[in-house]
Amino acid sequence: WVYGNGGLTVFNTLLNPNSEYPNCVTCSSCGTNDAPGLFPARSRHAGGVHILMGDGATRFISDNIDNTTWQNLGGIQDGNVLGEF
User: Fold this and answer.
1) What are phi and psi of 61, to 5 degrees?
2) What is the SS3 assignment for 52?
3) What are phi and psi for residue 72, nearest 5 degrees?
4) Inter-residue contact 69 to 85 (CB < 8 Å)
């Protein structure tokens, strides 16, 4: 994360935090900074990850968060209403 490269600092919500599955890039000749793929949020914290919300708040999200809720957190203008999580 210290370098600020997209592949090192950005994640998507397709897989739950600290997923057991490795990162996956769709283009083998592309770098992780410019190819679509699965980049779960990862952390060395036991049980979850700290994330920065769009409003500037930080939250600790459990590895066991409901997958639909987690994916809805990553959606933009999808119309889904999120309750407490």
Assistant:
1) -110, 125
2) strand
3) -65, -30
4) yes
Domain coordinates in residue numbering, the chain:
6-73
* Other CB atoms within 10 A of residue 17 CB: 23
Distance CA 37, CA 70 (A): 17
User: What sign does the CA torsion over 83, 75, 11, 9 have?
Assistant: negative
Question: Residue 65 is encoded by which pair of tokens?
Answer: 């968060």
List, for residues 42-77, the tens digit of each pLDDT value: 998 899 999 988 889 999 999 999 998 998 888 877
| Contact between 82 and 70 (Cβ < 8 Å) | no
pTM of model > 0.70: yes
Structure tokens that stand for 23 in this block: 């990162």
CA 55/CA 64 separation, integer angstroms = 23
Return d(Cα 70, Cα 77) in angstroms, integer. 15
Side chain identity, residue 10? V
